[in-house]
Structure formats: C-alpha cells, structure tokens
Amino acid sequence: MKSRVVSIFLLFMILLSACSVRDTRGKVTIAENGQSDYTIKADMEDNNTRLAAEKLKTFIDGVSGSDISYNGPGKTIEFITDQALETGEYSVTVNNGGITIKASESLFLYMAVDDFIDDLRRTSKDSVVEFDDTYRLNKKHTSIDNSELIPKYREADDVTLEKAYYRADENTPDWVSGLTIVEMRVEKATAEGTFDAAKSVLERLCEVGVNAVWLCPIYDGEYGNKGPQSVNPKLTGTADYTEGWKKAAEFIEYAHSLNIRVFLDVITWGVWENSPVLEEHPDWFTGNIVWGLGHEYDWSNPQMKEWFISEVVSIIEKTNADGFRCDLEPGETGYDIYEEIRGRIYDKGYKIAIFSEGTNFRANVYDFEQAGIKINIGNYLSDPSKPYFDPNPAELVKKGQIINSYPTKARFNTYCLSMHDFSTTIVHKNRLLMGFSAVFMPNIPLWFLGEEYGVEATGTLYYNVEQDLTLLDNAENYAFYNDVKKYLEIKYTYSDIFCEYALRFEENNICSVPAVGTGNIGAFARYSDQRAAVIVPNADPENILGNIDVTLPYDGMLINSENVRVTDLMNDEVIYEGASDDFTSFTAYIGYSEVGVYLIEKI
C-alpha cells in the first residue's frame, strides 16, 4: 500500500513538473535595448551566406539598436549548409539558447532568414527581438511554375472581339485582358542570338507567368531595317527571306504551344540606306535622312503605301503572330495606315491586337499604347515617374490623373516598367514597382527582359543589355525572381480580380484601404464578386518591424457577407475565418519595400 501511495505521489509530481514547464515556457531574446548575447557565426566568404547573415543582422540591429558581431564570442546564430539535406530544404532550430539556421545550400539560407524574420516580426516589439523558446521552422522550397495558370492560347475562331474603349467597335481580342508583356531583343536574349536558342527564353518566361513577348524588330538590319519584307539572317540562320520567315513562324508556333502571344515591331519611318527597296523605288522616299540611319518613306505615294500595307499584312499570314507594336506611331502616319492593315488582317480571319509607341486615341485602330501611365516627359529614358507612389493611389485611378490624356476614357493601358530605349536600370529588384505598381494595378504590365530577375543596365540602353541567368545564383536576385513569380501566380489565380478592366479607366475595380505604417504610399484593394485582394505596401524605411494596421473597407470592396475568410496570399496562410463584424481590421507584417497581398472572400 505504501509503495502504491509513493508511485501515485511520484506520478503526480511528474505531471506537475510537466505542467510547470508548459506554463513557464519562455522567450528567447536575441537582442534588447542595444544589447545582445549573440554573435552570428557564418562563412562570410560564401556570397549567399554573407547576404543571409547581413539581412538578419540588419533586421536585429534595426529593431533593437544592437550591433551583433560576426564570428565573435557569446551565444551563436549559426549558419550551416548541409548537402545531406534534400535540395531546397531549410530549417531554424533552437537548442540551449543557440540558434541554428541550416539549408541544403547557401541560396536557401537566405530564404530561411526571410521566413525567420517574417516570424520574428510577429513576436518582437520596439527595441526587443525575441521569439518563443519552442520555435521551430522546417520548410522545403519548391520553385513556382505558373505555366498552367496563364491563359490558354486560342485560335482566332475561339476568340471573342470586345471593346477597347467605351465608344469603340468590338474589334479587340478578348485575350488582351490577360496580358503580361515582356519586350525581348532576340539577338541579346541568349548567347547564340537566334530564334532557335530563344525558345529556352520562352520556356522560362512561361514558368514565370509571362504570356506575351514583344520582339524588337526582327527585320534585316533591325531598327536600321531593309524593309518589312526582310527578316534578319542572324536570327534565322539563312539569307533566304522566305526560309527566314518560316523560322520566325516556327518560333511563334512554339510560343503559342506555351500559351505565349507574340507581338512584332513594325517600323514606319523608312529603310536603311543599303535597302534594295530604296534602290528599286527611289520615288517611294522623301529624300530626308532620319535617325541617322536611312531614308524616310513618302506616305503621299500611293504605290509605296500599298506595298507597305500588303507586306505588313503578309507578315501575319507568314507567321501567325498575334499583333504589332508600331514604332513612332501614331505620330508618323496617324491612324489610316494601321486601320487598313487591321481591317485586311481581320478579313483574312486573324484576330490581332495592335499597340502604338506614343499615346493614341484608340480610334478603333489601337488597343493600347506602349506607355499608358504618365512618364516624366523629357527625362523618361533615365527617370520614369512612379505615379502610384502616392498616399492614395486608388483615388488617382478614380480621377484618371495618371493616364496620358485621352486614354482616361480607354479600357487598356500599360504600366511600362522599362523598354529598349531606357538608358539605365529602372526596377533594381524593387517590389513596389514590379508588384504594387505593375502587376496588381489595373494596367497591362510591360517590362524589358531581365527585369524579372535583376539584370542591370549600366551605361547603355536596355536594347544592348546581355542577359545573364547566372544572376539567379545570387540569393537576392533569386528571392526577387521568386516574388515576381508569386505576384503573377496571384494575378492569374484570381483573374476575375486582376484581369478585368472597365471600359473607362477611372471606373476600374479599385478602392482605397486605410492603413497605418505604410509610409508615403497608400494601400488599395481590387475586387470582384464578394471577394477582394487587399494590396499593402511597406514604403516606410523606419518601419523595420513591418507592423501595419489595416482597416477593411467592406462596403468599398462590395463585400456584404456575414462570414469571411482572410488569406495571406504571399504566404498561402489563412489568418481568419468567421464573422466579418468581428474582423474589421488586422495587423499585416510586411518588410520594408515589400508588398503584402490579402484575399478577403465570402464563406
């Protein structure tokens, strides 16, 4: 009996002890009020390990005011690469106060730090960086592949024609609504500079979520061209234009198999001085030398006009391309030439889209223009304006203040992040430009190839930039590339929100979202039937913790459901399910210069 009493007593003490451990579960404090017992132990010779260590140190020091050392005395935050792990695996573990950040390779150490910091934002506070002592992080990174999400390519018979502006005829292909466009110069897209080699670029862009490419001129001589009847032998591998156009058609057919549309550039100013057209028909030219390249077309000559129109129409017949970007238009020829081109192409059963370089009045000719959002006239080549960097960007849309003149009344406008004429890198891996401004606003995103992974154009035009995929071995570039993929995954998963455009720009599905902590850029929401995506930027360099108080404007988002589900789309995490009356505001945790996206939907 005594033995049984003792056993019961011991069991009681063990249970009491266990309860005591749970009840006194504590915090691990990394740094507080400028002090820290920790040092970062890392191989600073490895670039990605160094970037990961510096990112963590910047966050800890920024919040706490400390100055954590590298490879010094004290408790350690140790960075370890372990090739025994499966590719993409990473973890953060705590043992006796020591913190170990481990990954299969140093590229994923950076991602581990990203996730760790994201969790620290939720448990830390001003001057204190801390987390629960039971904290564990175990993940495996899987590369995002958006190839199955982008809209499917459809032949002309399956394409519906819609309006491009409120008074337009129905002559714009319905697929324009789903475009994400990248400009590509085939000569610089790969080391080989050929159509065949550039097929690999199409494959990568398909994975990213890009579903349209605008090709810089593919004519013999490029911008200094020999005429629309010609095609560049450097791209095709043959000087025979007939065979060369077949090569171009093969490239476009391959793009279509990947659900990518292809726009070809058309040059209407003239031809290079060595063009046979100039020799055979000197009367087709004004005699003026333009752009330092060649001779100007005489658009008053009916024979020249008919030849040009017929040749451009034949390009679609030869290649089955999806449309044109028209160089210098409508300033060069106005509207009549491309109205005739479009009409003839449609009569032949093709349904193409046409966009101009300059601002246009649509006029049933153009579907949009290269730069629909305002630019800094005069210095746009090196310093484009950032119109959405405003305390109330939704209000700018509603007032039509950011659109170039008449297109305020139009349906489709691009946000041109960069193009071939820009003389310096614009994006610099800036998520507020790429995500907040380009992908999530009611515009067609457009940028020059390479912006999606951080190519830098220094001292040259984008037109001359060499592509360098080895940049993706850099953790910062890879993280940005991964976020661009995520933005486009969200865009096409919720196409009812992001791929719908009002006939008048100012009537688009957007409203303001009150948010405290975003800095000088305000939040907004895009909405559809009983669901909305709330887009929250952190543009405040002082908001290191990234805590942003968001108030949900249910009425503005046209959501009147009693119950809602709220999902953090950047992290694929449901953060609330229940009565909408009980969830009128929440705290978003977003790093400086990053973008949060939250889906609010009826349940």
Element layout with pairings:
Blueprint: H1 2-23, E1 27-32, E2 38-41, H2 47-64, E3 69-70, E4 75-81, E5 89-95, E6 98-103, H3 106-123, E7 128-132, E8 137-140, E9 161-163, E10 170-173, E11 181-184, H4 186-189, H5 195-208, E12 212-215, H6 233-236, H7 241-257, E13 261-267, E14 270-272, H8 276-280, E15 285-290, E16 294-297, H9 302-319, E17 323-327, H10 336-347, E18 353-356, E19 368-369, H11 393-399, E20 414-416, H12 431-439, E21 444-448, H13 475-493, H14 495-498, E22 510-513, E23 515-516, E24 523-528, E25 531-537, E26 547-551, E27 563-568, E28 573-579, E29 585-589, E30 595-602
Parallel strand pairs: 2-3, 2-4, 4-6, 11-12, 11-21, 12-13, 13-17, 17-18, 18-19, 20-21
Antiparallel strand pairs: 1-7, 5-6, 5-8, 9-10, 14-16, 15-16, 22-24, 23-26, 24-25, 25-30, 26-29, 27-28, 27-30
Helix pairs in contact: 2-3, 3-13, 5-7, 9-10, 12-13
What's a quick, concise take on this entry?
The chain is of the alpha/beta class and 603 residues long. It is built from 14 helices and 30 strands.
Would you write up a description of this structure?
- The chain is an alpha/beta fold and 603 residues long.
- The protein has three domains: 23-140, Chitobiase, domain 2; 179-505, Glycosidases (TIM Barrel); 509-602, Golgi alpha-mannosidase II (Immunoglobulin-like, Sandwich).
- The protein has 14 helices and 30 strands.
- The protein has an eight-stranded parallel β-sheet. Strands 3-2-4-6-5-8 form a six-stranded mixed β-sheet, with helices on one face.
- Strand 20, helix 12 (431-439) and strand 21 form a beta-alpha-beta unit.
- Helix 3 packs across helix 13 and helix 9 packs across helix 10.
- The radius of gyration is 28 Å and the shape is globular.
- It starts with a helix and ends with a strand.
- Residues 1-24 have low confidence and may be disordered.
